[in-house]
Design brief:
This protein is mainly α and 94 residues long. It has helices spanning 10-25, 41-53, 58-66, 68-93. Helix 2 (41-53) packs across helix 3 (58-66) and helix 3 crosses helix 4 (68-93).
């Protein structure tokens, strides 16, 4: 069998189509992603965000106070990705 050098081989395309189809059919069988669990976390944030953080906006309190390190990590990853793309474009420009 001769290697054509194509990016998408027929076997790879079939496997990819099957996997994507399975992922799209999972909600039909009751397996959903991101379904809320039966917890009281959301009500806790709504009730206590202003007293614990001093923020009037619940979303801002959650993002910057309760999940501050997570937000800092996401901003760091985004900055590194933008820096990497800028370095690639600068090299291509030369």
């Amino acid at each position: 069998m001769k290697d054509t050098g194509a990016i998408f081989q027929p076997k790879f395309a079939v496997v990819l189509i099957v996997l994507v189809t399975i992922i799209f059919l999972l909600p039909a069988f009751g397996l959903t992603f991101g379904a809320p669990a039966a917890t009281m976390t959301d009500q806790y944030y709504i009730d206590n965000s202003q007293t614990e953080t001093g923020a009037n906006n619940v979303v801002a309190a959650v993002v910057f106070d309760f999940r501050g390190f997570d937000t800092l990590g996401e901003a760091t990853v985004l900055f590194i990705a933008v820096l990497g793309v800028a370095m690639i474009f600068r090299r291509l420009h030369k």
